[in-house]
Amino acid sequence: MADKEAEASASASAPAPAPASASASGGGEGKAKAEAEPSAEASSLPTKPSVTFEAAKREKEELEPSAIQETAKREKEELEPSAIQETAKREKEELESTHTPSDDEGDDHKELAEAETDDEWLEARFKDTRIAVIGNVDSGKSTLVGVLTRGGLDDGRGHARSKVFNFSHEAANGRTSSIAQEIMGFTSSGEQIMADRPGAVTAASRNATWQQVVNSAERLVTFIDLCGHEKYLKTTIFGLVGHCPDYTMIIVNANAGFQRMSREHLGIALALNIPFFFVVTKIDIAPANVFEENLSQLFKIVKSNAVKRLPLVVKEPGDVEVASAGLAENKMCPMFCVSNVTGEGLPLLKAFLQKLPSRLQESGLFRPPSAPVEFHIDSIYNVTGVGLVVGGLLRAGRVRCGQQLLLGPDKASQFRPVMVKTMHFKRVVVDEAESGQHCSMALRSLVKKETLKKNMFRKGMVIVGPELQPKATWEFKAEVVILHHATTIRENYQAMVHCGIIRQCASVKHMSCDLLRSGDKAIVTFRWCFHAEFLSMGATLLFREGRTKGLGRIVEICEVETYANTFAPPPRNSQIELPKKRKEPKEPVPEKEPITEHVPRELPKELPKVTELPKELPKELPKV
């Protein structure tokens, strides 16, 4: 009780604190004067540490040298690069976790990823070069391909070419009638990979050989062996237009020289703007004067106004680099003189083929993998245990196993949904294929209870992505130039048109001029004669009537309002059911009266008399 009274008296004797308004209104001068001249009342009070003094003491302790050094050290550690990077990384993660990207930012990231994929695709595609082998019949095309890919020499009696042919009748008569493909593989040092090739050529042995070469090679060269006989010119044009080779290798017989069909093949290569080079074969049996004469003939052709190339005969290893660079720019025409029996000139040719780059980007025929899928079918197979398999060239996009695509247009101008089961690239099983690759696919129909059959397919069919919304076209306009034609071309003129894998007869519906002769140019409207086709703007076309007559480029696809421009209705057994049509009652067919023949009930009693013959013949017969 006494303690409480003492505390109360002490608190009563203590001075009351000044109001906050008074201290604030006094300003800095009053505060300084009060601190300089303390009042007698304040000096008489017992000294007690004030709040201001404690704060000043703390600040003084913080400003001591040791504290300053520690603060500077801590700030320095925070400003180190590693700390800055960690802080920036942490802030970036927090921002990404809380930030939702807009549509524009998402599109930018998508385009950047697609661009990186396209660059990788170009770099990978440069490792595969496609070369079409053309020339006159009996010039040694298949023999040269067999010698280059097999490694051994020919015996002069067709041993090498027998390993390249697809059919037995080709080996029997020695003429190529179909498109055959063979590959060469090179290591990173430029050496050719020689695979183990069994004696008998079967599908299984070819598959094993190709797999060994593809898995071991750093660089590939694919040969497309085409026909040389005039009878199979359509197959040769189909290989040049549909398979899109990077280069053409024109084979010339050293004895026969540059013949008519070789000129035809050269004209097609020039029309399609495909770089070409010459290989003169059979130099071991050609007389010296004949060989020199035929070689000078090639020089004249290459230097002519129609060709305008710089000829170069490769004789030394130093010429290989110059020849490959000049051919890639389509300014030079290298020439090689080889013998498939003695092996002369073959090492230079192999070194040249190994250095040829791909012309994927320069040709303008392919689009990157980021584009919608566009697969052109050039062959159809029915494999036992697998089903229907189609082979062709992937012109755009990327295809994966299990992907759903559209197949068409078929004979009824329809597109049907299909799914890719498995894929092969150069006879090797793969999970995906990219633009520029020639591959094969096993397909399955997505229509309920429908099985794909070989008779459902025809020339000119494609497999495309649903985002393309494909349409079958009956009419199109093309800018054409007439190469050579004996007569005048007018409206209603019909010719065989080659456009990619399409090979169909078309008629001229309209022209920008009244008539066309050799060397003339015009805008021509074509109409297909039998089926609607899937076309692309800017595609190159050739039309012929026997021999090649003209060259053109598609400039417009005409929209004709027909059933061919829409997706086909689903088949009768599909999952989608169409409304059934109401059957109208048929009118009763009146009964026909039975047809009865009027047969007499009784035979006549008297039969007609037969003319009596003479009883005796004349003794003397008339003289002849």
Automatic annotation (TrEMBL):
Residue ranges of domain Tr-type G in the record: 126-361
Q: Where is this region: Disordered?
A: 1-110, 569-624
Q: Where is the composition biased (Low complexity)?
A: 8-24
Which Pfam families does its entry note?
GTP_EFTU
UniProt biased composition (Basic and acidic residues): 87-97, 584-624
A Gene Ontology molecular function term for this protein is: GTPase activity
InterPro entries xrefs: EF-Tu_GTPase, GTPBP1-like, P-loop_NTPase, T_Tr_GTP-bd_dom, Transl_B-barrel_sf, Transl_elong_EF1A/Init_IF2_C
Please provide the record's keywords in A-Z order: GTP-binding, Nucleotide-binding
Does the keyword section mention Nucleotide-binding?
yes
**Cross-referenced SUPFAM superfamilies:** EF-Tu/eEF-1alpha/eIF2-gamma C-terminal domain (SSF50465), P-loop containing nucleoside triphosphate hydrolases (SSF52540), Translation proteins (SSF50447)
Q: Which family does it belong to?
A: Belongs to the TRAFAC class translation factor GTPase superfamily. Classic translation factor GTPase family. EF-Tu/EF-1A subfamily.
The protein's name is Tr-type G domain-containing protein
Organism of derivation: Polarella glacialis (Dinoflagellate)
| Lineage, highest ranks first | Eukaryota, Sar, Alveolata, Dinophyceae, Suessiales
